[in-house]
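Teaching soon. Got one?

===
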Amino acid sequence: MGFIHKRSLIGIFKVAPLLLCLNVCVQINAQNTNPKYDEVLAKKLGADDYGMRYYVLVILKTGPNVSEDKAARQQAFLGHMSNMKTMVKNNQLVVAGPFEQNDEEYRGLFYFKCQNKGRSKGNP
C-alpha cells in the first residue's frame, strides 16, 4: 500500500514535462501586456489597470405619484434639470435624454460615469 507501482512512475515522468511546459506557457502568457495600453490616458479618463471604467445606465420610468398640480410639477422639473446640470459640471453625467411616449412608460435615460462598481449603487 505504501509504494508506487513502476508503471505509475513511468506515466508520471512522461506527463510531468508536459505539465511543466504548460505551466510555463500559461505564466508567460499571463504576464503579457497590451502593447496599445496607454497608462497616462487610462488615468486621465479614470480607467482601471485594463483601460476600462465603470458606467451606469439608468432608465427612468413613470411612477405612481403623478401630481396634478402644474406648479408642483414645474418645480420638480426645475429641480431635476438643476441636478442634471450639477452632475454634468461634476463630470458624472455623460448622456441624458427623454424617450418618446411608449407603452412601458419609460420616460428617459441617464448614463453616468462611476469611479468603481461600489459608487454605482446610489450616487455616481
